[in-house]
Write a structure and sequence with these properties.
The complex is a heterotrimer of chains A (75), B (358) and C (334). Chain A has one helix and five strands. Chain A is of the alpha+beta class and 75 residues long. Chain A has a single domain, classed as SH3 type barrels (Roll). In chain A, strand 1 and strand 2 form a beta hairpin. Chain B is an alpha/beta fold and 358 residues long. Chain B has 16 helices and eleven strands. The chains are: A alpha+beta (75), B alpha/beta (358), C alpha+beta (334). Chains in contact: A-B, A-C, B-C. The interface between A and C is medium-sized, with 15 and 19 residues. Strand 3 of chain A pairs antiparallel with strand 8 of chain C.
């Protein structure tokens, strides 16, 4: 259902396609769902398509929010 | 990031010292596998139970689908069937599968991406039918492939639809009075497409929390700890614990693409029966792409394999080892039902990792 | 040779067969070997304790980065003998070729087999070729049978395997399988990876010379996961692998990730998996690391008292079981 692989955009081919790379393995992927993606950015690829951009910064920010929200530190 | 490491250690401790029993449903088959593969499942205290869910598109597709494909191949020998690898070994009625058809010389090809099937249609000039099975994550690339075929006027590319939508499935699970689910580990990549909002009304209505979770070890720790905390506090919120990939509003472009070609329709699910508006039909202007229409066949009464507990497993009602055939008459090499052969199947996951507490 | 494709006649035993032998096989395998006499059987000197091993090879694609079906066939059997401490001495080669097979490709295969055999010092002493009708073969099938001198490369430790012993792999895992997968049909994946197809003779010799080696195997089909399970199954001890120590090339990780398969179960064709005495482990690793083909040798686990008969792996989070793989790993997609 959900097998996905984070890949880096290394080349944009046309409006709908780009070449992406993960640890040295390259594949042409469909970027119709992430048309604004730029070279060097990371996307989550499922069944040959980028379903979302990977934004590490968001993860870091969320961690801050949660540790407050969840108060797990103090549990 | 040391802070992350420290945080994760604390979350791990939280999980291990959690003192209430809890039944958590891992909706997505990939989560079932990842809980096993990372070893995190082994880390959970025994009173926290993981239930498998319907997030295995091959598992919830009824037997009649495979029977139809087999009948199509017999009646229209010219067709090329293109499919994801999982579908190959799924047994139809009489335990015949696409692997058997392949060994009889039928043209059945495994593809990694639906677009690869469109390429085959372009090159081969024979009709290509793609076995269009999946949840929203996969429906997006399928819609993209269809778009390509439309733009390039590749006519002989057809879809045999068996799409499954997650929200109606959750509704069906929760509306069952016998359901004993305290909370949901929600599928990370389906959520990348649909976002957080669609879950909220359903989960609120039934008072259960859900946490959108990623698939790496650290994601499972964060997701599980967050969910346990919500359960303890009696909250029925939906939290996005996978913000690096999931935007709360989902992926607008992907949803548009899906919406362009497909409309929700009532759909038959293995285990659940008919769930209203839980599948897809092609929009009227694209019905020429419907393989059911282009290659009509008579599908006789399909039979679920006798004794197969897959319908109960996908609802989290039975654990695979509770099936009398598990590991005996039903193995990945000789499966009775799809749960044992799908890469998302709970039975396949249990069998592969052979938990000692079976 | 005027014909550029193998014809049924080439296998018939007449003039065409002789042409094939004289123009393709002898130039490659001959050169002073008993084959040149073209007798029905070859006289060889077999050591008093001889090892024999046979294997048949079918691979697609026939040619891949790092090797071809021919080199696979040579090294495959050579390695089987070597990990049993045998010094490989002789090989026989049997081929079943499909009508229409390009002679140019046959030449390439045969020449690289010769090179491989020479690199190990093994003599090809008998051979046979048959041709089958088009459609009845997969291009070419090759069988090699090898004879070696038992103990010719050294001896195992007298001590039985016991908890505390270390598990060593002589290099990165999954290289061969990854190479085959991406060079096969249309997965559309491109990567800089080649098969590890090669001889393990020197690795074995070096390890045995240090001493303390209790068990060796070449982890081919089914990879390290399956091979280790084959040792541990039914035994009064278990094994524990350390996930973070597994040497895996980035490209292999990438390919495995894209296809949803586990490097632990991916085939290798030039590696040795060994179980050695605890106190000798570091010395062995350091010694074999000096060989170019074993530069990434590492200790990847140990034999344990707990979970007898089963293999476990320590991940970042917990320990879990490494099962025997139930059948072929189909690339996972969705």
């Amino acid at each position: 259902m959900c097998l996905g692989m984070p890949m880096k955009i290394v080349e944009k081919l046309d409006d709908a396609h780009a070449v992406a790379e993960a640890l040295g393995a390259r594949r042409t992927i469909n970027i119709m769902a992430t048309p604004d993606v730029k070279i060097g950015e990371y996307v989550m690829v499922h069944a040959g398509m980028a379903i979302s951009k990977v934004e590490e910064k968001e993860a870091e920010e969320a961690l801050e929010i949660w540790s407050e929200l969840m108060n797990i530190w103090n549990d | 990031m040391e802070r992350t490491y420290e945080y994760l250690e604390r979350l791990k401790k939280y999980i291990i010292s959690y003192d209430k029993p809890a039944q958590i449903m891992e909706v997505c088959g990939t989560h079932t596998f990842q809980f096993f593969a990372t070893g995190i499942r082994d880390m959970l205290p025994p009173h926290i139970k993981l239930l498998s869910g319907p997030g295995c598109p091959v598992c919830v597709t009824p037997t009649s689908y495979i029977d139809r494909v087999i009948k199509m191949l017999e009646k229209y020998p010219d067709i090329i069937i293109t499919t994801f690898g999982d579908m190959l070994k799924v047994p139809g009625t009489n335990r015949k599968s696409l692997v058997h058809m392949k060994s009889e010389g039928k043209d059945i090809r495994v593809v990694y991406a639906p677009e690869d099937a469109v390429k085959i249609a372009e090159e081969e000039k024979r009709p290509v039918v793609f076995l269009s099975v999946g949840f929203e994550t996969t429906i997006a690339p399928i819609a993209a492939a269809l778009d390509l075929a439309e733009q390039a006027s590749i006519d002989k590319f057809y879809l045999l639809l068996s799409h499954k939508l997650i929200i109606p499935a959750l509704k069906a699970l929760l509306s069952d009075p016998e359901a004993e689910i305290d909370g949901f580990i929600l599928p990370g990549h389906v959520s990348a497409i649909i976002g957080k909002r669609p879950y909220e009304p359903v989960l609120r209505k039934y008072g259960k929390p859900g946490v959108i979770t990623g698939f790496e070890g650290h994601h499972l720790i964060i997701g599980t700890a967050t969910l346990l905390k919500l359960i303890k506090e009696g909250k029925s919120e939906v939290i996005n614990a996978y913000p690096e990939v999931v935007r709360d509003k989902g992926n607008r472009q992907a949803l548009s693409l899906i919406n362009k070609y497909f409309i929700p329709t009532d759909e038959e699910w293995r285990g659940f029966g008919l769930i209203p508006q839980s599948g897809h039909a092609l929009r009227e202007e694209y019905r020429h792409r419907d393989a059911k229409r282009a290659f009509p066949v008579e599908v006789p009464e399909s039979q679920d394999p006798p004794g197969c507990l897959c319908p109960e497993v996908v609802k989290g009602k039975k654990r695979p080892p509770e099936c009398p055939h598990f590991g005996k008459g039903c193995t990945p090499l000789h499966p009775l039902g799809p749960c044992m052969v799908s890469s998302e199947g709970a039975c396949a996951a249990y069998y592969k990792y052979r938990r000692e507490d079976i | 040779m005027i014909e550029d494709k193998i014809l049924l006649g080439h296998g018939a035993g007449g003039i065409l067969t002789h042409k094939l032998i004289n123009e393709i096989f002898l130039p490659a395998f001959g050169g002073g070997s008993p084959l040149e006499d073209l007798d029905d059987a070859t006289l060889i000197n077999v050591p008093s304790s001889a090892l024999v091993s046979t294997d048949t090879f079918t691979v697609s694609p026939l040619f891949f980065p790092g090797g071809n079906i021919g080199t696979l066939a040579i090294y495959g059997t050579v390695n089987d003998i070597a990990v049993s401490t045998g010094k490989p001495l002789y090989l026989t080669v049997g081929m079943v070729i499909e009508e229409g097979f390009p002679i140019k490709e046959l030449k390439r295969i045969v020449e690289s087999m010769k090179k491989a055999a020479d690199s190990v010092g093994v003599k090809i002493v008998a051979g046979d070729t048959k041709v089958v009708e088009k459609g009845k073969g997969d291009g070419i099938y090759i069988n090699t049978t090898g004879i070696g001198a038992y103990g010719g490369l050294g001896t195992f430790s007298e001590e039985p395997i016991k908890p505390g012993d270390k598990v060593i792999i002589s290099g990165t895992i999954g290289d061969h399988a990854a190479t085959i997968l991406i060079n096969r049909e249309n997965l559309g994946i491109d990567a800089n990876i080649e098969s590890d197809c090669g001889s393990v003779v020197n690795i074995v010799k070096t390890a045995l010379s240090v001493g303390g080696v209790k068990w060796m195997r070449d982890p081919t089909r089914g990879g390290v996961g399956t091979t280790l399970n084959e040792l541990i199954m039914g035994k009064p001890f278990g094994a524990l692998l350390y996930e973070e120590t597994l040497p895996i090339k980035d490209a292999v990780r990438g390919i495995a990730g894209l296809l949803g398969i586990d490097p632990l179960y991916m085939a290798n064709e030039g590696r040795v998996l060994m179980v050695v005495e605890k106190d000798k482990a570091e010395e062995i690793v350091n010694a074999i690391r000096k060989l170019p083909e074993a530069g990434d040798s590492t200790i990847i686990g140990e034999i344990t008292e707990s979970t007898p008969g089963k293999v476990k792996i320590k991940t970042q989070w917990a320990e879990r079981f490494v099962p025997m793989l139930p059948g072929e790993q189909l690339p996972r997609i969705c």
